[in-house]
Amino acid sequence: MVQTKPHSMENRLRVVITILLLLTTPPLIHSQIATPARQSISMADTHPRLWVRDSDLQRLRSWAVASNPVYSDGLALLAQGAVEDMDNGDLPGGDDGIADWVEFPNEMYAQLFAFMSLIHPDQATRDDYAQRARTLLMHVMNLAVNGEASGQPFRDIEFSTGNRSRWWGEGFPLTVDWIYPYLSTADKATIRTVFLRWIDENLNASTTDYNHPEPIGTVNDPILLSDERAVRWSCNNYYLAHMRNIGLMAMSMDAADDAGEQLRSYLDNATGAWLYVIDHLLRNDGRGGFSPEGLEYGPEAFGYYAQFMLALHTAGEDDPAKRGQQVSIPTNPFLGTMGSAYIYSLSPATAILQSRPWIGPVYQPAWYGDGQNYFMPDFIAVFGALAVYDYNMGNTPRLEALRWVERNTPPGGSGEFLTRIRQAEIFRDAILLFLMFDPAAQEAIDPRVTMPREFYATGLGRILARTDWSKQASMFTYSLGWITIDHQHGDGNQIEYYRDGEWLTKDRTGWDGTNILCSVGRSDYHNTMALENEPSNLDPDHFLNLCHANGSQWMYVPNGDGKILATSLQDDYVFACGDATELYNSSEAESMDIAHASRSVLWLKPDHIFLYDRAESKTDGRFKRFWMNFPAAATVNGNVTSMTSPKGQQLFVSTLLPLNASISTAPAEAFDEDVANDEPMNHRLLVEATGGPKSTRFLNVVQGADAGTRVQQATLVESTSGTAFSGAAVADACVLFPVDLKAAFSPITYTVPTSVVKHYVTGLIPDAQYNIAETVNGSSRTVTISTGIFFSADQGGVLHFTTGTVGIENAQDRPYAFRLGASYPNPVIAGAAGSEEFLSIPFELASSGHVVIDVYDQNGRMITRLTDQEFIRGSHVVRLPLGAFGPGMYFYQLRSGAEHASGYFTLLR
């Protein structure tokens, strides 16, 4: 059973800043690390040692000066206001000690005062800040030491395990570490008693589902990974907060003040159990840099993770040889891709929110998961901690990228940078901002222009692509993964499309559970299919009934995961094919009637999206529906749906299959408590297969266009022989999809207008070779594709070729010429998503003959002889492996008899 949680704080948390992380690292395979139990913890023996080290203090005090605006116009003013709050009597008594949101949390204020006691240039002022921090800290400790008591201030078990502990829980151990010399022996004994109880409560928490590693007390053992669902829940925000708090408390006190090192010993548990499990998830099912819980909870949750990792580093406990790969930031593949995941999620341009224009420009990202405010949330909790680490380690490229994005991309832009510090609602954020901005550092430059335009996060199955990095760029997203934990939505096979400054279609962002569960999280609000299943065994009042009634994928209890079967990320198109069948079924709910549910989609940049959906049930009479969200009302004329956006752009949807489809549009359901603030999607399109057939196919062509542009006619194209393929021709392009994904390939023939010269045939064998023949009869062009040797499908099984201008293989009456085609991809982005480690070089021969292809570096030195053999007349493609090549520009020369031609390519690493 999935439990719900209070979320009142999320309505109050400021959402102001986003930070980029660029450096990527290769993934590592999980391995078990045997760590001796209950050994002496050899952490740094000085204070401070958590986030800030004793060796950092002189430098930080030199930053805390009037000439540094981050300090004088930011952090110092925040601290001054906090002092006034305390002097006005709001602290410590203004904190009633409840486990949820309070206006004046003692631990947050204590943390800020403790930090100022380290970095303020004046000793007397440092002493005053330290005493303030001690007063607030011990006010809580002297009450909490009396033991757990339900409903009592600072003593309820939820105080150490619930919302408050994740929002501000680091404040207690950091304050202890930062003012350690000011604490008396009696203070430390009281604190230790409280910390030991709180750790025990975290180890046995019941805040949500799968709260802690099990068996409790087991460390560095694969048995902790035996339950896949439990491993996936390790990315839950409470789980990660508990890990952080246990680890920081364990490292906060000296061995001399910890009898038997009992408190310190729990670091073994924090790293060997909690961190062990989350590390496994992030190297496997969670790989790719996206928090599985989405953009509402991910930034804070992985902030807890990064904050613990930073503390391990500054305390000297991040040696992988001692504690395992899970404690090392440099070898962590997830942390190495979080920044890329973030930046690819940003909308190309910013927007001004109609409901809150005073915020200033905000990015409206490719959202996923629960969300209460539709603009990019604050990532400072995670990226600030990483920036401090990068500063310590001299990782200048990533640190500069973090600084650039922090200053320029949060809501309000660079003009609100200092405001975000001096008015920080979470004081921790201001501390991290101070720590990451060296006042002597030069202004960082925009790093985005060096990034590829496509990104694929394989763990959650999210593809994000754009035409370029300008504000006018078009953007496309596709997602298909797993939905078995909290805050995920039924969004398998979802697509989204952004054009010229606004989303023309996207998910309907919201928080599914604030009022009526299974509302905006349902599949019918995620640009995918809704499929009726058989009645379930759920109780009538079960919250998932509304999902089931609307044909949604099963959140929390699907029968399995969505599976992306093929992808191809190219300069001119993006293709994906995914099977979501198991997301629509649930053995737990005894609802298993969906036989097949898959989608093939090809975005032909910049303005056309071809969608082919396959839906099959075991029983007749069950509805099968295609849904798409719009930001404005739409009209239906025949098989074409037209929508004019708030900015005057147009979106057309041409429905070609089913032939007898019912097409309608309507306003989206209100869901006043659930829809995110400033969410633009408010209408939607429904295409339904009439009569609820067992099997049906949806084929829709989506076209974005400027105001006043007429829709380009989309024509149904179907193969007339061989394997069944179906697709559409629009303008000069035709895209085909296999009707049945499991059907073996046999030569296909299809006919298109002669205006069609670009062909994209999907669903073929990746990298396999084919022959293509064409005949022209008046205004029609007939194309036959068979297995062969001339043209190659790409790594996603897409065969892309041009007819009418370059010639087609196997057309015997066609005259050939000696010709060297353009190599592809060029440039080659080695190691990037969708990129291959070889270059394809096409060429054509007028007659059979001996061919030599040599490759040279930019200094004219021959690197390799790629080809030295006989070729027959016709078109060919050869491949140059690039694994041993370094970055740079290269040239190649094709020679056959007396003829020769040259080309070049660039390799980026």
Backbone structural class: alpha+beta
List low-confidence stretches. 1-39, 805-814
Radius of gyration: 30 Å
Q: Sum up the overall morphology in one term.
A: globular
Instruction: Tell me the fraction of residues in β-strands, as a range.
Output: 15-25%
**Number of β-strand runs:** 36
Strand order of the largest sheet: 9-10-11-12-19-16-15-14
Largest sheet: 8 strands, antiparallel
Mean pLDDT: 91
- Please bin the fraction of helical residues: 10-25%
Give the helix tally: 20
The end-to-end distance, rounded to whole angstroms, is 47 Å
Key traits:
alpha+beta; five-stranded antiparallel beta sheet; eight-stranded antiparallel beta sheet; disordered N terminus; 909 residues
What do these coordinates show?
The chain is α+β, with helices and mostly antiparallel strands and 909 residues long. It has 20 helices and 36 strands. The strands form eight sheets. An eight-stranded antiparallel sheet has the order 9-10-11-12-19-16-15-14. Helix 12 packs parallel to helix 15. The longest helix has 22 residues.
